[in-house]
């Protein structure tokens, strides 16, 4: 029943608005798709793949050992497709696997995952994916299948990239898996200071978008562990150092025609919305319960900008 509910060709080419900052929604699990779609959001700014895998209670390696590669790919295809269907033709940005090793270690098969002193600075996101091409290839195969099924509203997002080399290696693997980067919308998360400082080189890799993961960008810029209560008072997404990096990224991306977005928790803070709309961000993706407030805030700031421009 793979293609039973696939959109037809005539429905292709998701509509892109001509002006304004779009407001999107984050979807943590596929079961939340309908509720998320009902918010009227302009699309999904972040759909996390890892929950589709972690919910099976097995590491990717153990899952494939027990059920086979095809079942692993199906698990991802089914989860993403549920969301892509609920939002079609609105775009759905799907992030490749990004769970730290300590989360994998709690699962069946976890004893074979690395035990790390500091998982947040370790083996996660694109680093793990590039180090385990066999595992990453299965994820990419799931994307290729979704495109075959007609879900051209699916976008591919790479987490925790450091530099252009990370992106180019992933891009090559996408091509090997049958995904045409020229034809599909794909991009990166800006979560490391290195990726923000090197945004020009990242833009030159051919990405369509860059999305701020402010949970991590704040943690790494301020050297404040996002899970450490002792320094929780120092975790400030609106810190000038974080905002300075973000402003540079938005400016450079605009020069290169690369869309910008935010999908970290700070997206629901009015001050962050004001800052981003002022800087000219393309979209803001918030949690389901915050979408309405963010929509209002965006409208308010855009009206102010419009008034200022005619004065
Ligand atoms: C972020 O870092 O802001 C983000 C959205 O990713 P995660 O919270 O999953 O690390
Ligand atoms: Mg992150």
UniProtKB/TrEMBL annotation:
Membrane spanning segments where? none
Q: Where is the PEP-utilising enzyme C-terminal domain?
A: 10-302
Q: What is this protein called?
A: Phosphoenolpyruvate synthase
Complete-protein stretch covered: 463 to 773 of 773
What does the UniProt function comment say about this protein?
Answer: Catalyzes the phosphorylation of pyruvate to phosphoenolpyruvate.
Q: Which organism is it from?
A: Haloarcula onubensis
Organism ancestry? Archaea, Methanobacteriati, Methanobacteriota, Stenosarchaea group, Halobacteria
- State the similarity comment: Belongs to the PEP-utilizing enzyme family.
